[in-house]
Amino acid sequence: MYGILEFFKRNYFSLLFAALEFFSLYFVFRDNYYHQAGYFNSSDAVAGSVYKAYNGITGYFGLAGANEELAAENARLHTELLHADKGSAPPAPGFPAHGGNTYNRYFDYTPAEVLDNSTARPDNFMTLDVGNEDGVREGMGVVSPAGIVGIVVNTSAHFSVVMSILNKNCKVSAMLKKSGAFGTLNWKPGETDIHHALLLQIPMSEQLKPGDTIVTSGYSTIFPKDIMVGVLESYKPVPEQYFYTINVKLSVKFKSIRYVYVIKNLRKEEKTSLEQNTYKEEE
Fold it and tell me: Mind giving me the DSSP string for 202-252?
């Protein structure tokens, strides 16, 4: 009992202050709804911030699965549109409409994720998470919604290696969209600029201006016509050759590319066989 009295004696002023503070707050909150609301709103805001942060984190980790589903659905819808009759709805963003071009209808799209990607070498490659078991074969084109990416050069059961257009050995037939004048797209030899490539052998009769759109020509069996390549940034004449060399700003951002589509030409063998037989007959 003596100890308790001594405690109150030593802490008299502190205990009195705490008691007065308690009763002051009690009367404030009892009679003032503004302060009640302020208190509860503040506590709810703190809790809400915590839940928002938590949901943001869990949502971020769920994006991978969502992106894969969207990629698969996009590929399915685009393949259906390419096989559809004239007058169908426009294709998914980034892909060409066939618009009466029957040849463009015979392509299938397989979604894939980029597992590895080099950009700092003279010859750059990337690895995809699809392979032979997914129908992927050497020589197939690879695109993203932003434009062309490269060509498959090797496959295993579950993976494939792509020679990206940031590779001096990758050559793609491309053209000026406004006129159809075509040439060969090739990455600048010896360069490490991942944002530009050269379009070679464009006739000097062409009227060029910065901003002109460059797309695939469709003359090979690898890419359909009108896949986005980039835009004309500058050009210069090639002495004594009557051609322009165009500096193309590529549409694909290779540093951040994550999801792509592998293109299968359903009539590649028929076209190739016919052309080879014709050439033999001419010889």
Answer: EETTS---TT-EEEE-S-SSSS-TT-EEEEEEEEEEETTTTEEEEEEEESS
Residues 6+ apart with CB under 8 A from 136: 110, 112, 128, 130, 152, 155, 160, 262, 264
Tokens matching residue 211:
């901003």
* CA nearest to 16, candidates 27, 28, 24: 24
| Per-residue pLDDT of the chain in tens (283 residues, 90 and over written 9) | 555 656 555 665 566 666 656 656 555 445 443 444 444 334 433 433 443 344 454 445 545 555 655 665 565 555 555 545 434 334 444 555 444 455 567 889 999 999 999 998 889 999 999 999 999 999 999 999 999 999 999 999 999 999 999 999 999 999 999 999 999 999 986 667 899 999 999 999 999 999 999 999 999 899 999 999 999 999 999 888 889 999 999 999 999 999 999 999 998 888 888 888 888 766 6
The burial of 226, by beta-carbon neighbours within 10 Å (0-12 exposed, 13-18 middle, 19 or more buried), is given as buried
Alpha carbons 71 and 113: distance in angstroms, whole number: 9
Place of tokens 């793609």: 172
**What domains appear along the chain, each with residue ranges and CATH number?**
2-61 (no CATH), 107-267 (2.40.10.340)
